[in-house]
Every structure is written in structure tokens, then in C-alpha cells.
Amino acid sequence: MAIGLRRRDFLAAAGATVAGAALPWSPARAASTEIVWSTWNNLGLPDYIDPFTKETGIKVDQTYITTDDEQFARFKAGGAADVDVFVPGQWEMSRYIASNLVQPLDLRKIPNAAHMYPVFRDNALNKKDGIQYSLPYYWGINTIVYRADLMDEKPDWSVFFKGDKYKGKLAMRDYAVEGIMIAALYLGIPQTEIFSMDDRQLAECKKALIAEKALLRTYWTSIADLTNLFATGEVVCAFSWLPPYYDLTKRGIKMALSLPKEGVPSWCDVLAIPAGVEGERLEAAYKLVNYLLGPEYGLKLAYGGPYAQSTDLVRDKLPPEQQERIFIKDPAVMDSFVWPQIPRRYNEWVTMWNEVKAS
Amino acid sequence: MDGGRTFLAATVGPVLVALIVLCLAPLGVLLVVSFFRVDFVSIVPDPSLHNYAQVLSSGSYRYLIAKALMSGATIAAITAVIAYPVAFFIAKRIREVKAALLTALLIPLYTGDLVRIFAWRLILGREGVLNSFLIWTGAIDRPIETLLFSPTATTIVLVYNYLPFMVLGLWLSFETLDDHLFEAAADLGAGRTTILLRLVLPLTAPGLVAGALMVFALVVGDFITPQLIGGASGVTVISAIADLFGAAFDWPLGSAIAWTLLVAMVGVVAAVVVILGRTPWGSAAFGRG
């Protein structure tokens, strides 16, 4: 998964507005051994969760997220009261914490958290004032995906900003945070400064992004759509999630990935417990969080997703090719991660992104 | 009399309440929020005109609003030109298969927006039906890139999507047009052009105006077609508003843009009404003169 708009739903942007009105979204709460998990629809398949229910007697009702933005808007409008465990993007934890929508976690009740890779364990986005509010759950990368049969060389970020060899054959995701972040990486702006860029740095990014626009075939909004654009040859190279790479490789098209040396945008979804969950439900929520970080669930996710957990509990149980597939064969890749986060001047970023697109 | 009033209240009352609750109240909330400001994750009720100043001082937002209005007006005009003879033909020249033709006209609306958009992708794409055909005929030797992901492509698909709304409005007007009027006008010596300009157009003006307003409003609000067909230039004011509401959590600025757009749309419609109202066609459409 990636940050923001992640499902194949072109209308999802409107969802946040609808959800903001706290419309009919109220899963039934019944026995105390039933908890509600707000999650993506591919993470709680019966096969994944049944062992947990069998072992603990806790029934897990699921409600599905359509977009990160929609989930946040829903929680802001009071929707958190119906949820016991949820899955936000790590990049947006700061706004859940600032909105007092999450509660601090007692790590003594989540023993599997002790097995987290350092890059996740130490990530400051899950903490405020040293208090842990969320735990990294599973993760991946978003990077340059390209048609190796239609490109002569392995591209890096510069392919989107200069030269015209692939003009009209490139695509960029229509999302301000990632779009501007990539321009900043290309321009060599230090990673520590990217999400708090000053006016001068933002202006540099804007200039680069306007140049980028002239080279693009389109901005993509749905990964299914981008997959089609790759398949038909409309687009030969894009900043992308990985499904087009997996799906089209399987269909015999020569696809490839490029991990630019300037940094690879990474994503991580986290587990959090809404403020107000208490008593037996809280205990059950902790058990679910611990299970989701554990080896039994991790093994299913490593093949089913395929996604890597934030813990190393299943790594050694996977054959090398599967480790490679979910980027845990060589943990050094984690050193190149760039973690998106809510920019300090987010609305100005979004305004600038719209200005670029309207230029 | 009292019975009549009770009946009126019982029938009109619920409609009025529904209209106020479902339509005007949300707009009222948007209007109020548009004067507030956002502080990271909080909407601060600190009224000011700051958001409106930001909208009006931003070249991009002004451009996007103007682009939406221009797009609405352009598509309304193109659909009117295409729909006029089609509606005339269906209403006045077809007897046997009228229902079938009208149904056929509506068939595109039975499919979803996305289905129609992807069908057009197949036609207009680099390796699409049209480019392949043109290459096969020898008319071109390389695919025309701008057939898809361009403003032209957006215009084609928008016209296709909203043509039925224009045809339906005009068809109703043509159906109510009494054929004897043509004969009377011809008997009095009016030529075809005179009949068209002084009789048919004024009498079908209500359908034309209704269709145009419907197409205009629908096109202004359509952000999916430009986004999926328009390529890198497919940004619309609606998608910008959606970004502000969804991603940036800047509901006040999003609301201010939405209200500016609404006022601009009402302004355009009012201007059309005033200008057309002074013409014989408009008098027929708006019931004056």
C-alpha cells in the first residue's frame, strides 16, 4: 500500500467529504469478545484471522477503509467511537495524535513488537514526546516502474524532469505529498528538510514540477488504470506502486524497477488503538495487534499480499526468492527509505500542486 | 379553501423541507466554514475573508474556475448544435420507431461513467481503434498522440456523455410544436430560414435553455472525465476542491472555492437569462414579452 488514495476507486476523493458528515457507518457492537478492526479489505481475509479467533475466542468484525483521507475525516467526525483497532498510514500519525484520536500503547502487552526492524522501531512518526501511539505493521516501497522492453536505460528521478526522449510517455501519481517529495529528491534537497521546506525550496520544486508536467502523458489516480496504461504502451515509465510490476510481469511483459540512489519513497501502515477503547475491549485489541505482528499472520501476509511485516519473525522462514520479492533479503534497502509525512505547510503543498497542474 | 391550503401544505411542505435539509443546509454549512481557517487538524471558527482573498488573488484558482465555466459553456454549445437536428428528426420525422430511437439515445447513460471513459480510451489511444484505422488507410504513418490525453479528447468525451441531456430537452420542445404553425407561416409567405429563425427557434427556446443549463451544470461538476481523458492538463476546479477537502484537510479554503464557483455559475446563468430575455427567443423561453 501507499500513502493516501490507495484503492482502485476514482470517486474516492469525494468519500472524505461524505464521511465527514459521519454518515451511515456504524458496525454493530455485541459481545465483549467482539472487536471492530478498521482495515484494508486485503488484510483481514478469513484465512488470516480465523486462527486468531480460534486461539483467543475474540471475534474480529472488520470495516473497510476506502482511503487514508476518508478514514481520518471519518474519525474526526466521531467515527473512532465504533472502532477498537485501526490501520492508518504512518505518514499521517501526527494528525491523529494532534487530534487526540489515538491512545498511548503499552508495549508490555505487545511482546511481538520487540522483534521490529530498527528502522521501524525507532521511527519518530509513531511517537510524540517519547510516547508510542502506533506501531509499524507492514510496509513496502513506491518507486520507478518501467517497461524494460521500451526503454533503453534504467531511469532515475531525472527522467521525469529533463530531456525529452520519453516525453509524453511518462506518468506521475496525482498526489501532492509524493509528487513534491520526488521533485525535492531530484533537486537534492536534504531528506531531513523535505517536509519542512521553506519558500525558496518550494519555489525550486514548483519550477521542476512545471517542467515535469510538460513531459507527462498523464497524472494517474488509480493503480489499475496505470497498469492498463503500461500494458497498452501509453506509458513506459511512472512513479508507481508495485502491482503493475507484478501483474504485467506475470502476463509476460518485460517490466522492471528502479530504486534511485537519491532515496526511495517508502510506505508503512501502522496499528493504533483509538482513544476511549478500554476494559476487555482494550485487552482484546492488544491481543489482535500482537497477533498481526506475529509469525503466523506474517507468513500469510508474506505470500498473500505479498507484504513484509515490520517484525523479523518470519524472515528466516521464507525462501530467498520470497524474501527478495518483499524486499527483506537485504535489509540494507531500508537505509534508502524516505518516509513521507504530513508536510508542515500541507495546504500550501496541495495548493502548489494544483497550481502546477493548472500551469 | 382551507382544505385547499391543507392539501397544498401537505404536498409542497415535505418537498420544501427535503429541499432545505438536503440541499440548502449543506450549502449553508459550507458557506459558514468558508469563513473559518484551518490550523493543522482543527477548523478554527475565527471568521475572516482570508480564504476568499486567497481564491481571488490566486491566478490558478481563477483560471480553474474560468476553465470550468468555459468548458460548461463550450460543451453546452456543441451539444446544442448537434442535438437540434437530432431532436427535430426524432420528434417530427419519425413515427414508428420513436421510442426505440429515444431508448438508443439513452443507452450510453445506462453504462457507468467509467465504462464510457474506458471505451473512449480504446478508441482514441495511441494503439487505439482510430489511430490503427488511420495508419491502415495510410492517412498517417505515426499515431496521433493528442487524440487521447488532451483537451480535444476531453471535449469529445464530454460532448458524447452529455448529448442525451440536450437532445431530451429539445425533443420535448419539438414534440409540443404544432405543425400547423409551419403551414400557416409558409402560407403567409415565410421562407424556410424565416420559419426557423422566427418560429421554430423561439418556440423551442425553452428546451434549448433547459438542456443548455443542464449540460452546463453537469460539465462544470464533472472532474472524472477530464482527469482520465485529459492527461496532464486534466485538472479541474472540482478536483482541486476535492484535494483540499480530502488530502489537505483544508475545508475552509475548499469551501471558499466551492462557493466562489457556485456564485460564478449563478452569475453566468443570470447573465444568460438577462441577455436572452431581451431577445424574442428568450421571451419565449422565459415567458415574457
Helix content bin of chain A: 25-40%
Biggest β-sheet: strands ordered side by side in the sheet of chain A: 9-8-10-7-11
**Strand residue content of chain A:** 15-25%
Q: Can you say what the CATH homologous superfamily of chain B is?
A: MetI-like
Number of domains of chain B: 1
Strand order of the largest sheet of chain B: 1-2
> N- to C-terminal separation of chain B?
33 Å
CATH class placement of chain B: Mainly Alpha
Main location (chain B): membrane
Family (chain B): Belongs to the binding-protein-dependent transport system permease family. CysTW subfamily.
Keywords (chain B): Cell membrane, Membrane, Transmembrane, Transmembrane helix, Transport
Organism (chain B): Roseiarcus fermentans
What is the element layout, followed by pairings?
The complex is a heterodimer of chains A (359) and B (289).
Chain A: H1 12-20, E1 34-39, H2 46-56, E2 59-64, H3 68-76, E3 85-86, H4 93-98, H5 118-121, E4 127-128, E5 131-132, E6 134-141, E7 143-147, E8 170-173, H6 176-187, H7 199-215, E9 216-220, H8 223-231, E10 237-240, H9 243-250, E11 255-258, E12 264-272, H10 279-292, H11 295-304, E13 308-309, H12 320-325, E14 337-338, H13 346-358
Parallel strand pairs in A: 1-2, 1-3, 8-9, 8-10, 12-14
Antiparallel strand pairs in A: 4-5, 6-12, 6-13, 7-10, 7-11
Helix pairs in contact in A: 1-3, 2-11, 6-7, 6-13, 7-13, 8-9
Chain B: H1 2-33, E1 37-39, E2 42-44, H2 50-57, H3 59-93, H4 98-110, H5 113-124, H6 129-137, H7 151-175, H8 179-187, H9 192-221, H10 224-229, H11 237-246, H12 251-277, H13 280-286
Antiparallel strand pairs in B: 1-2
Helix pairs in contact in B: 1-12, 2-12, 3-7, 3-9, 7-9, 8-9, 9-13, 11-12, 12-13
